[in-house]
Each structure stands twice: as C-alpha cells, then as structure tokens.
Amino acid sequence: MMEFQPAAYYLPHESPMVFLEKVCTVDNDHAICEVNVSTEGILSPFLNEHKALPAWFAIEMMAQAIGVWRGCHGMRKNETPRLGMLLGARGLKSTLHEYPHDSVLRVYVTRQLQDDKLASFDCYLEINGERITQARLNVYQPDDRELAQLIQPPTSEEPTA
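The line above is the sequence of Hotdog family protein; the predicted structure tokens follow.
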C-alpha cells in the first residue's frame, strides 16, 4: 500500500484554508481523504458554538479531495500543485446540518468525466461508514495564462462592480 503525505502537500492552499488532513488512497479515478472534527484539529477555527462543523463545509472538502487527486497525479509528472476552480455542485444532499465534534469525516471522490481542463466527480462524505452528504462537483483547471487573467487586479479603464 502506498504511503501518502498529508493532504496539504498536494494542495496549493495554506493553513487555515486546508480542510483535509489525511490522504487514504489515490488511484486513476478515485481519492479518499479524512479529517477530524476537533477543537485541536485543522477545522477548529470553523467550528460553531456546539464544537461542530457546519455541513456547508462539505462542498469545499469535496473540492479539496479532488484537488488532492489532481495534485497527486500532477506530482507523478513533476508538476507542482495548481489552483483549480469549482464551477458548481449538483444534487447536493445531506442528512446532517452539522458534523459532530470528535467525528472523523471520510471524503470520497470518483472521476466521472474529464477532458483537458474540465472534470466532473461524484463525491460523498461518510461518518462511521454511513453516507451523510453527497454531490456531483464540476471543476475547471485553468492554464497559467487564464489564471493570470483571473487573478490580476482590474485596471482603471475597466469598470468595477
């Protein structure tokens, strides 16, 4: 079985914006990651008054698991982790409105479609083997030119919103 680095190693994010801890597996079409909902863990800044994590964080955890999948495959080709973009989520369903303190969230992502820049993944979260949240995420991997255009500040000639 292959040993993996912590999830942050495969992502172009820095703390506190990394929401996954452990990479369990990555293969051609799947990735599985875990994170603990704990006052001592990486999610601690985002816990509510019940020491629970609001369920809407699932979208970003799923997107980051896709990022881990992409980052791991990219590193096999000597590429550094790159920013990706979440285009949307479909069929988001959750049986919980928050994830309880001291629970371990296991995030599963499965590639359904992919071309050069666009991909679609079926995703779900489990606690103790029970599926609690699911969605299909559509993502986009911009090239360097597109990324530069997206993150450059507007010029004075461009109208601002």
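Note on the example: The two ends are 51 Å apart (CA to CA). The helical segments are 58-75, 144-151.
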